[in-house]
Every structure is written in C-alpha cells, then in structure tokens.
Amino acid sequence: MLSPHLTVTFDAHDPGRLAGFWAAVLGREVVEDAGAALVPGDDTQLGLRFVASQAERAGSNRLHLHLTSATDADQQDMVARVLELGGGHLDVGQRPEEGHIVLGDPEGNPFCVIEPGNNFLAGCGLLGELACDGTRAVGIFWSEALGWPLVWDQDEETAVQSPYGGTKVAWGGPPVAPMRGRNRQRFDLALAGGDQQAEVDRLVSLGATRLGVGADGAVALADPDGNEFRLSGTGR
Q1: Residue 234 has pLDDT above 80, yes or no
Q2: What is the pLDDT of residues 53-62, one digit of tens each?
Q3: 3-class secondary structure for the chain?
C-alpha cells in the first residue's frame, strides 16, 4: 500500500508573503503549486502550503509549529531572524521560566522556538514538531492513515513520526477546544499513485467522514475530531 504524503495547508491573506517568510526561516524555496505557494518538505520534514483566503481567524489555531535549536545562541539567532523577516513576539500566557520562545509569523500564526536540549525533539530537524489540539483517537487515526509509527502514547497525548524520522506530529489530548468554523490550517494528503477512491474508502474505514469533492477533484474528509483534510490524487 502506498501511504499518502502529508503537507500542512495554511489559509493566508497574502500566501506569497507568508510562504516567503517560512521559506526564509526554514532555509527552503517557494514553488508554485496549483495556485498556491508551496514550501516543499522531504521524507523527514513536513511541507507547508499557503492558499489565499480572506476568512478571519475564529478562536485559537488548532495547530502550531515547533522549531528546534542546538544552543542558546542558536535559539536567539532564530528569534532575531524571525523578527527581521517580519514576525513578532506573542504572549499566549507562557511563563518566564519556560525555555521556549513564542513568536508569530507575519499573519499572527503562533509558533515556538524550542530551547536546546529538548529530548523529545532530538534529531527531528529544524521543523521539529507540528503540535495539534486533538484526542488520543485522532492520533491513532493519523498513525494508521499515514502509516507512521506511534512514537508517543501517554496520558491521552500521542505523537507520530515518519518511518524516516524527522518532524513529529503530536496531539495534546483533552480538553480539546470546540470547533469554530473551518480550520485555517489543515492537513493535505497526496497520493503519488494508486486508486484515490480506494484510499478514500480506507480512510473512511479508519474513522474519517467523507464531506465532498472539490472542483480540482480533491476529496474533502474530516478526521475523528472533525478536522477537515483533503486527499488529492497527485503526489507532491
């Protein structure tokens, strides 16, 4: 069975600007992708995709990125780079003694630069983690959907990681904030080959709900927590 390839899609008022910001932060390039701006990943690092939307944020983001650092100086260098590129500091209630630094990208999407020596993210690369709101059930679902091993399963918290290593995708467990409209950040799955309908059927059998088909042929589904995601038939 061919596992689908995961990209994270962000709604953006200015997709080009936001993609340029993240490409500069992560040391990658921006490529055009069916009218969207894509910052490609690889087997070990998630890709980020930015699409135009004028929808305003309703409530907190249900996912955010964690960047890693090797030393205290490395962490401060990343903060300085983010500020120079148009990001800023955010106060989300973090305590002074916490080692991570909370920042926002140019459209206010929060992310963290994690302190050096974090064992959970050791060896995960610069984009160390995608941290999500979600139940244990949704972590189990995504482990099976992606074919990625469950690398953490404790106290209702779960995390999965590609068999090749790299970025972890984690869910914090309850309480999970209620949905407030369509999520501004969503998972995008792409098949490099195989039967799209068969893959939809497999995802539904794992607990997904089919929502419809877009004009581009991508199938919209929802995971067991109700988060919308898309499955397209062309790999990136």
Answers
A1: no
A2: 987 776 788 9
A3: CCCCEEEEEEEECCHHHHHHHHHHHHCCCCEEECCEEEECCCCCCCEEEEEECCCCCCCCCCEEEEECCCCHHHHHHHHHHHHHCCCEECCCCCCCCCCCEEEECCCCCEEEECCCCCCCCCCCCCEEEEEECCCHHHHHHHHHHHCCCEEEEECCEEEEECCCCCCEEEECCCCCCCCCCCCCEEEEEECCCCCHHHHHHHHHHHCCEEEEECCCCCEEEECCCCCEEEEECCCC
Strand partners, 140: none
User: Rounded to whole angstroms, how far apart are CA atoms 181 and 100?
Assistant: 30
- How does residue 94 score in pLDDT terms, banded at 50, 70 and 90? low
pLDDT of residue 97: 64
**Of the candidate ranges 26-40, 95-109, 191-205, the one whose mean pLDDT is the lowest:** 95-109
Domain ranges for the chain: 5-232
pTM metric for this prediction? 0.93
Phi, psi of 47 (to 5 degrees): -90, 155
Among 3.20.20.30, 2.60.40.420, 3.10.180.10, 2.70.70.10, what is the CATH number of 5-232? 3.10.180.10
Residue type, 23: A
